Amino acid sequence: MNSFPMFLDKIEEFFSSGFYIFLVFPALIAALIILLYNLLILMRKNAIGRLIYSRSFSEEGVYAGDSVVLTEVIYNPTVFPLFRLDVGSYISTGLEIDGETTDVNEYLEYFSSRFHLPPFTRITRTHTVKCNTRGHYVLQTAEIYCDRKYIYIPSKAELFVYPKPLGETERILPQLNLLGSELSKNRFINDPFMFVGVRDYIPGDAFSSINFKASARTIKGGVRQLMVNNHDFSSQLNIMIYMDFDVPRFMKIDTPMYEDLIELGLSYSAEIISRATLQGGKVGFAANAKSYDGSMYLRHKPFAGTVHVVDIFKNLAAITPMTGASFLSLLDADLNYSPVETDIVIITFDINAELESRIRRLRRYGKGVSVITLGV
Q1: Which of 1, 160, 256, 319 has the fewest Cβ atoms surrounding its Cβ within 10 A?
Q2: Angle between helices 306-318 and 256-278 (to 10 degrees)
Q3: Architecture of the domain whose range is 169-186+236-373
Q4: Beta strands in 333-375 (DSSP E)
Q5: What is the pLDDT of residues 321-353, one digit of tens each?
Q6: Domain 52-162 belongs in CATH node 2.60.40.10
Q7: Which residues lie closer than 8 Å to 204 by C-beta, 6 or more apart?
């Protein structure tokens, strides 16, 4: 019973001596340090969440084999330094970044950049990207890792890699100049600035083309002859390209040979489109392949203009070697449409009897039809 009062006396003696300060004060300091450290960690994590990051390609679209620049911009808007900060995302192996190659059998690779960010600092970093493979490449979300914490920032960057034109004009253009067995004149337009003389009037000539001075001087059989100005023609390629994605009888769709021949056909298409555009012509493209928007075929009616051509090339970049609708049904849908003053180029694996009948029908409409056969 006497022990408890003695214990109280000991406690009173301990506090009255002031010795407790040497024990409690370090403990308070340690607790304060731990509290500040945890607070710093919490604020640092919040600072990571406030990072501003963006990336972009230097071009919207390029040909396969060309290079572009990928630019990353990251900004730390806080007072806290952020070191050993990794920014990464998965990217297709069709793009080679800073000369780093990967296994050809891999479809995706993980690409990352490390940053050390002092407070209120913006860092811009560029990477050289070689576009080895045709395709539509989209980077959606950037993964940022720091202090064992992951955050994800939407950072879209989009690139179209077009099929590379073959450049074999000596092989393609003769087929476009002699379509089928006869010369098509749909691509030749009367140029009013190319005067080459006068000729006799024939029914259908425009009144504005009559040369009255020459008519007054020309007498044939005692009768004055009406004469008109004769103009030369300018060459203009108006082309509608139809590409067949149907798998030929001798081939399976899941073979590298099929995909290689499809790429060859797309390169032919790119070459023809480029040549027609340079000559100021109208160009269209249609294919029985699934497009990136999910439709069973792709169709661009013949038209001129940069926006139209770029739109076609974007679809050529994004198209996948997968059959959609039947190629014959695609042709049948356009047979009645049959754009005027436009010749037809068909890119296919082979010509069967059904396709031959469509070609004859197009020629009866006065169309020049050229066929480029893949794999032969």
Answers
A1: 1
A2: 170
A3: 3-Layer(aba) Sandwich (3.40)
A4: 343-348, 369-373
A5: 777 778 998 888 887 665 667 889 999 998 889
A6: yes
A7: none
